[in-house]
Write the structure tokens for this entry.
Amino acid sequence: MLVSCTGELATEEDASVARDAPGADTTSPVDAFSSTDSGPAADAPSVLDAPSAGSGCAGHDYLFCEDFESATPGSLPVGWSVGGGWQSEDTQPEVSAAHAHGGSQSLRSSLAISGQRRAEHALDDLGVSRGVHWGRVFYRVEAPAFVPSSGVVHNTMLALLGGGEARVVDTVIGTSGDHQFLYNIPDDSCCVGSSYDYRTYDGDWHCAEWQVDRTTQSYRFFLDGAEVTDIAFSHGAGSTRAAMDEFQTVALGWRNYQTPDVPYDSYFDDLAFDDVRVGCE
């Protein structure tokens, strides 16, 4: 199954993968399952057991942490701003007391058919770890969530912005209601996607963790403490394929690139960055 990001649902037989920005060039399509990815390096670290850690910010010295407890519902915490999208009729991302993973509040995503605005925050607190770090966020997608009757819907939950955009918590849902995870960049030239074996748009909280290293252009991803090994990669020093750099900003919130009949309603909580693995507990 291929991912089309033109703003319309792709058919599974469609052999093209278009770029995400509306009206952008659609040359050099790349299959989300492209076999040209190197996969995990032979000397990549083994799967780690999730360390014990509290999911909120209190009592931790993470490089950056946000639990959305400090803001009044309907606003954003200090330091956060609303980043641009391409749907003028969407709502704004905002703190909500409707659901929380820890504490009593979380971030509710903008509601729109596609191109949602996201909450953004500078990553200055990471210092030299902006391009080499571990991250963690909890997400919840309200059920029943939209399932396409044909084609797929590509959704980004969390992206790192610098010279480009690295989508480190990213999914594509198919007609079965199952979805894959993938690392993605706007021109779809990177990287390989997992199998469609996941079903987390289920009204429960899930823990997403990632590790990025710009010096080796490498990436690892974990769901609820277990590594999704088939999307790990390490392209090596000197490579620019994954478009990793000294990231400047985190963009948090649901954004999809096709046009589902019903918007996805999603929440995010207990975001943390550190130079060691954060964990889900």
Remarks:
- Residues 71 and 77 are 5 Å apart (CA to CA).
- The chain is about 0% helix and 30% strand.
- The first strand starts at residue 64 and ends at 66.
- The chain has a mean pLDDT of 84.
